[in-house]
Amino acid sequence: MNLYKSVFAASLLLTSTSLLAAGVVYVSGSKYTMNKADFLQSGNNYTAYLQVDGDTGQQLIFDVDARVAGLGKESPEKDCNTSCHYKGPVDFRYVVEMQVSCSGIAIGSEMDNRNELNDTWVDDRSREVKLLVDNTLTTGGNCQQLQVDVKGVDVDTIETIELDVLVGEVF
What we know:
Layout: H1 2-15, E1 23-26, E2 32-35, E3 40-42, E4 45-53, E5 59-71, E6 73-75, E7 84-85, E8 90-93, E9 95-102, E10 105-113, E11 116-118, E12 121-122, E13 126-138, E14 145-154, E15 157-169
Parallel strand pairs: 1-4
Antiparallel strand pairs: 2-15, 3-4, 4-14, 5-13, 5-15, 6-8, 7-12, 8-11, 9-10, 9-14
């Protein structure tokens, strides 16, 4: 059975030429880990695709968690590398959203921020958010490809994405 799954997974990867798929996640399999290199980038938006094997119409548990880090934005915006000095309050923002779907079926989304209001400066622009999409639902056997979108809603850069995916069956 493991040989069959390995051959099936390899054939899916070879035949999927229209979309970049980072790998295969098996229902009731082990946790699948990805990083920023596994995502397609468009500005500060990142998308990853995972083939799903084992959805036969049963109720599924989706557990997708991410750690996203990078540099935040300051308002009023200035051209500065590590710190800026202002006379008034500084609104510092780092907002990231993660959306998860499977073959067009919405699984869930979460948004987090590390915003702060400072009186004079932002000394360290580096920020990190943690996002979790945890949902249980039945997709009717239609979950074939998981799509994870990580969107920098209000950021300067996203430098790191660490993502864990687990799709399991309800016992």
